[in-house]
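Reviewer 2 asked us to include a model.

Predict the structure of this chain.
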Amino acid sequence: MLASFFTAVTALIAAHPHLAYAIVLLLALSESIPVIGVFIPGTAAILAISALVPSGVVKLWPLLGAAAAGAIVGDGLSFWVGHRYHREILERWPLNRHAELVVRSEAFFARHGDKSVFIARFTPGVRAFIPLIAGMLQMPVGRFYAANILSALVWAPSHILPAVFVGAAFGIFGAAAKPLAILVVLIAIVIWAMIHLVRFALRRGPLLLSKISGWLQTRAAASQSRWGRFVVDLLDPARPDVRGLALLALLVIGSAWLFLGVLEDVVAGDPLVRVDTAIYQALQELRTAPGDAVMLVFTELGDTVVVIAVTAAVLLWLLWKRAWRTAAYWLVAIGGASALNTIIKVTLHRARPTELFYTGWSAFSFPSGHSTVNSVLYGFLAFLVARQLRPAWRLPVAFSAASFVLLIALSRLYLGAHWLSDVVGGLAFGTAWLTAVSFFYLRKQSEPARVSALIMVGCSAFALAGGLNVYRHHTLDLERYTVKSAMPTMATDIWWNTGWQQLPAQRIDLLGEIEEPLTIQWAGSLSSLQETLLSKGWRVPTPWTALNSLAWLTGNAAPATLPVVPRLDSGRLPSLTLVLSSDTASKGSRLVLRLWPVDLELTDGTSSPVWCGSIVEEQITRPLSLFTLAWTQPDVNTPRDLMAGQLQSGRLVARANAAVMSWDGRVLLARETSQ
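Predicted model (structure tokens):
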């Protein structure tokens, strides 16, 4: 699914490269606009497009020109706004909602003067505000544009050329380059989202905490119970660590709520469990030998032997330093997380996505032990280190630990060792346990410890144990985690008579929701089916291009000429999509056939693939004759019966107790006439 989507996007850019240049120009421009530039990941999108230069999809010099021009125009526009409206612009929405960024930008400009226009181009956060501040402070226009143009001419190649070299390096991997590139983009998106989520929480968290703390203090003061006195003492403003304790308490509640929500879905089989299959299949499409080798390293760095080595090394150092209380909490944090994780696994007995080499308690899937234990191990180690550092160094330490844990968790998903819900549940449970232990640890004064020595002990143990574990097991693990490509088989006669009922009855979208019924099963090649249906009036849908997409914005496009919106079934894009022309379907509508692959092969002398699909009617409406909308109709029986009349090799069969809403429960079975 992901590879197909990436291919479609690349083909669209190749067909219309001018759109790529326009997008780069607009993104570079938007990053220079106050507020907007803080939240739009323009640099990431520009880097992704730049990586396509070695393949010839886009050209280097127009790309450099578009990026530089967008940066110059964006800064110039921001400078003009500040020069025209002065400080009164800061009192208007949305700038009045980001006073802290304005203060930081003014301090930055005061510190660096006119050079700040050049320096800010490479400084996240203040970059979008410095041109505005320069205009407000009446910086000479000539000096501003000199710094603006010079910074853009340096910024554009400094961002684009490294991405071009990376794109050229990926070309070395041949057929594996595309899946590897998609994997790298996914990892970057996850880490980027995590960093921005934490930053948002740190900006908005204090205000929320103060409101919650005030409400709790009021309620607790009115109570004479033991818990009321505990809360009043805990939230006493005189305590120096009250904000940290309140933040940890809020984090415990949030992560525990997330874990219990995931646990409920796993037990009840709710949509999240159906999302598991879609994500699993999508990630398995990205499996390549180089990707497996890299992701295996992260999995091996999170193995039990490495966890034990780091835990033991830090514990012995704490005991040697006579930090008895910290050593006890350290042991409770890692040991308790591991024990509770195992208890939950044994209780639920949830199977892993594939049969791997795990035995005993490790054979069970929920929650992910790698995600749980490593989040506690490196989270608590980062907590012990960061609390003794200056505030400026705390966030980098936290982000480094969180990024490493996320990479371990993603490796478990990529290798097919766990479902998505296993990993999310493990991270949530590990975070809840970690913050609970940290909460009680902070309630009393801890023993002082040398940060440099603690970092050295932890990193040395990690490097030695992790390196040795990778060296000893990497080759064997490559074989153990190899993609199992064996396809389930079934005799053709069994499928034709009763086996078809084992295949899915309804489509599952990417969010795990149950959608329209799968009313057709086809055994054979798709080209044969397509040839037959084309002779019956069906047609290949109009491809999605920039020009064709505009047809949806008109009020006179013929239904059969509109591009078809792709739909996913368990994370897979349809392998065949056909539409029935409007003169065959009812007026103002069209029939759409979609077929998805099924993990099943029929054996009757030769192998034959099986496909499941849906046939739906899309009603075309044109509100006020301004644009076009397509609505899927609930009646799936009439379109299925129409196709049954067109396929002479088909027959209608009924599922037992499968009728839902407007579906009568019948399925069309069809196969190539040669079978």
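The chain has 24 helices and eleven strands. The longest strand covers residues 589-603. We have added this to the supplementary material.
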